Amino acid sequence: MGGRSRTRWAAVALGVTGLLCAVLGAVMIVVVPSLIRQQVLKNVRIDPSSLSFSMWKEIPVPFYLSVYFFEVLNPEEILKGAKPEVQERGPYVYREFRHKVNITFNNNDTVSFREHRSFQFQPAKSRGSESDYIVLPNILVLGAAMMMENRPMSLKLMMTLAFSTLGERAFMNRTVGEIMWGYDDPLVNLINKYFPDMLPLKGKFGLFAEMNNSDSGVFTVFTGVKDFSRIHLVDKWNGLSKVNFWHSDQCNMINGTSGQMWAPFMTPESSLEFYSPEACRSMKLIYQEPGVFQGIPTYRFVAPKTLFANGSVYPPNEGFCPCLESGIQNVSTCRFGAPLFLSHPHFLNADPVLAEAVAGLHPDPEEHSLFLDVHPVTGIPMNCSVKLQLSIYVKSIKGIGQTGKIQPVVLPLMWFGESGAMEGKPLQTFYTQLVLMPKVMHYAQYALLALGGALLLVPIIYQARSQGSKGDGGQPPPGAQPARPPSPCAPLLQDSPSGRPPSPTA
């Protein structure tokens, strides 16, 4: 009796444990999604107590800037009216360091900051050195010539004389370091003397001179602490709610984030919008496909083919005009009036006539497309590669001899790619806190429910067997004859060969 009692109590205990597990699992199914959501919101908002704050403040991802130049192979022939021929040189790779400074939390749920940037050349990753000489269009000469197109002839002749005196030509042969970070040019001093508002720079001129050891202005973004719906969205840039570079309110709007983090809980219907000071406009990327990066689920976002389309192909872009062929965006209004154009590398997704006008261009979607891989639950980028090309529109300007007989053409100068991928300890921390733990909690709730259900069966099975055992004690086994009760005649029946009682004798 003692063993049966212990078994019964063990079954009851297992049943109670199963009930508790089942209840806990059911509660977790209801509560865990809300807990995960709250945990994500707590860790992605811009707040010193959040998990991602240090990542936001000083980006731990190693970013690299890869620069490719389009060296002009036939500069003298171009001046005589020939088709330009170019050869891609590079990449010249730089490690990019970013960290935020002057971080100020405001009373309206926003934070203001500047993001300081610096670059360090990486010889091991580069194909060439910064001392390499490259022949490129002279942006100062050709840009100034274009800006003088509608000026009086006398002024053009004076500029021609000035170019000749200073030794300026339509094409220049300079080192990569000079092209990137600046060189002293007497033309800059001349322009600043007679046209003081034409150029924003007073010293050296270089394509990236303003980016090294500098920042891209003051961003003010929403923290998401009080109002999650506006998390990471830009409130103002340099104190402006919209810019005035373009010809429509829609194009001048500052939309999206500052380009580093986006709102969490994305769906395939989500888009990535951000404001780029370098492009002087907001850009929107669209969802392409799901993926996995280092075990972390991602959504890939890419540029729509209409990103740089002209107004005739995509009417909302009319505000960025005056436009040339579709696929290139005129950025002269935010680049001191120089006839510069932004596009995808090698005129990818642009009107084919642009690539056909320059020998040596080979647009390739695999090599020249830009993308961002973002963790959809947190809105944090895991892997990105943003690629853009800078070109200059050139042609012969009557009265300015340095332009010769150049036929109108959009001549590519260079293209660059900014790339970065999360790795090392930041990746491990991110995976553990924001991917692994939620996944463990997700599966734990169903495991507890299943375990609870299994344990609940133990007392039920025990009870059923106990009832069966009690019933079996009073019933004969199937096919067996019922036993006869003992009687005084039993020995006589056993002793009789026939099994019948013996006859009585007289």
UniProtKB/TrEMBL annotation:
Its main location: membrane. Residues 467-506 are annotated as: Disordered. It is found in: Cell membrane; Membrane, Caveola. The keyword Membrane applies. It is a multi-pass membrane protein. GO terms for molecular function: lipid binding; low-density lipoprotein particle binding; scavenger receptor activity. Disulfide bonds join C251-C384. The keyword Cell inner membrane does not apply. This is Scavenger receptor class B member 1. It comes from Urocitellus parryii. The gene is SCARB1.
